[in-house]
């Protein structure tokens, strides 16, 4: 056990070393947990473990913040100690900026419930950007300062020392040239020897000065850029492209065969919202299901007077309306000003004739796994919609088409994709993510009326 005094008695160097190595391990664990959390395609495989993993990521983040706090009092001395080492100072500034940015954006994402979505969006962008830059940097830092590379460096130095003097000039040209180029007064008498010695120096100067260690460092850097570069480029393009044409890109690869396509209402065709701003991250807990109009069905059942089943063609005859609303995921991203066209849920419920014993509305996805539920009051909010079109086009397969639920005032885990069944029930149903640790209360932050 180290007491506080024990810690302070340690030399600055020892304390810095301890903080440095703990920090390295914490960063590694944060990277692994963070990357696993961010992969949309394995959300289903992770299940409830996802929530545990997120909690772990947050705890690790808190430890990392504590390390910064522990380091803060040593900053001045440390800075002074490395005054002659520009690259180490640059590294320190960069690493502190990274840690600070990660921490601040991480705390915002952690406390998302008490903050407006725009804050979370910005925090997520910063968190992701720093990860794209910081993790490859940390990897490079770890490789270029590894014992393995230091050993290569020692080998280089040993090899240089063993070489004849003219070749040594190649290893450290600046330092050795003047000495080697000056002919010994005694040797100057032998013109041929002087000539060949001089030529050797010139030849050595022509040789590449790259040592094995610096070559390996360069190679590691290049490999990292090649490995991470293209994915980073795609991410940057996606993150900063707010033209809203990604839904169109997604639609181009659509696996659904729903015919005839739904004809958009005028407001929808005109895209009165101006086009969705931002990008959807495609989430699913199953394989992405595909649907065809000849087998697709939609049902409203349970505690209702008039249970119904519709074929695609019949479903398209239901009266639709158009609304513009924002879409917020609990993980921090949003898509603003989506122009949705569909059937208001309350109209479907009214037509079905909800019986007095019904208290909740349960939603079934055609993926046969995902479900969620709303209380009857929540389900009857004006903007809860069984949506068929987005920005005047059929909802693409990957975004939950042909038909998905939209609950704009709640986080999007309530917005069941590939919706095919609605059931009126009398007991509360715990939805897919709620059963795995998400809160049943999914209200998005709203600005409070001033009192
Ligand atoms: N069937 C189904 N619906 C779902 C999900 C899912 O995994 N499966 N994910 C939910 C979550 S957490 C979000 S944020 C949104 C994501 O919608 P998108 O994939 O169209 O961006 O869908 C919600 N509805
Ligand atoms: Mo979500």
Automatic annotation (TrEMBL):
The keyword Transmembrane helix applies. The chain crosses the membrane at residues 21-44, 56-72, 92-112, 124-143, 215-236. Keywords: Membrane, Transmembrane, Transmembrane helix. InterPro entries: Di-haem_cyt_TM, OxRdtase_Mopterin-bd_dom, OxRdtase_Mopterin-bd_sf. GO terms for cellular component: membrane. It comes from Paenibacillus sedimenti. Residues 287-433 form the Oxidoreductase molybdopterin-binding domain. GO terms for biological process: respiratory electron transport chain. The keyword Transmembrane applies. This is Molybdopterin-dependent oxidoreductase. Gene3D superfamilies: Oxidoreductase, molybdopterin-binding domain.
């Amino acid at each position: 056990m180290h007491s506080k005094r024990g810690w302070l008695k340690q030399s600055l160097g020892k304390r810095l070393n301890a903080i440095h190595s703990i920090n390295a391990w914490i960063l590694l664990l944060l990277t692994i947990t963070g990357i696993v959390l961010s992969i949309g395609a394995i959300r289903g495989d992770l299940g409830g473990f996802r929530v545990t993993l997120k909690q772990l990521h947050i705890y690790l983040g808190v430890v990392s913040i504590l390390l910064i706090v522990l380091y803060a009092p040593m900053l001045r001395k440390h800075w002074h100690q490395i005054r002659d080492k520009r690259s180490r100072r640059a590294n320190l500034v960069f690493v502190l900026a990274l840690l600070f940015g990660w921490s601040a954006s991480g705390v915002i994402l952690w406390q998302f419930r008490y903050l407006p979505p725009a804050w979370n969006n910005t925090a997520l962008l910063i968190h992701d950007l720093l990860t794209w830059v910081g993790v490859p940097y940390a990897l490079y830092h770890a490789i270029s300062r590894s014992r393995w590379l230091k050993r290569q460096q020692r080998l280089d130095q040993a090899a240089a020392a063993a070489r004849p003097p003219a070749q040594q000039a190649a290893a450290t040209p600046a330092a050795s040239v003047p000495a080697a180029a000056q002919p010994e007064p005694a040797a100057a008498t032998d013109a041929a020897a002087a000539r060949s010695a001089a030529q050797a120096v010139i030849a050595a100067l022509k040789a590449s000065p790259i040592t094995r260690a610096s070559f390996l460092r360069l190679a590691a850097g290049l490999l990292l850029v090649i490995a991470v570069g293209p994915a980073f480029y795609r991410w940057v393009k996606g993150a900063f492209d707010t033209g809203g044409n990604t839904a169109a890109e997604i639609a181009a690869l659509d696996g659904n065969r729903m015919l005839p396509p739904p004809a958009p209402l005028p407001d929808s065709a005109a895209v009165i919202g101006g086009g969705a701003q931002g990008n959807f991250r495609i989430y699913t807990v199953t394989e992405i299901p595909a649907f065809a109009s000849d087998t697709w069905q939609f049902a409203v059942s349970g505690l209702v007077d008039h249970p119904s089943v519709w074929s695609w063609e019949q479903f398209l005859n239901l009266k639709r309306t158009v609304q513009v609303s924002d879409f917020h995921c609990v993980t921090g991203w949003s898509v603003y000003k989506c122009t949705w066209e569909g059937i208001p849920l309350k109209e479907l419920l009214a037509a079905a004739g909800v019986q007095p014993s019904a208290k909740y509305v349960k939603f079934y996805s055609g993926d046969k796994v995902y479900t969620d539920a709303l209380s009857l009051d929540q389900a009857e909010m004006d903007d809860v919609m069984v949506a068929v079109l987005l920005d005047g086009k059929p909802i693409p397969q990957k975004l939950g088409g042909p038909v998905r639920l939209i609950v704009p005032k709640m986080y999007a885990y309530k917005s069941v994709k590939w919706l095919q069944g609605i059931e009126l029930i009398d007991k509360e149903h715990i939805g897919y993510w709620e059963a795995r640790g998400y809160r049943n209360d999914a209200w998005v932050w709203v600005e409070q009326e001033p009192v």
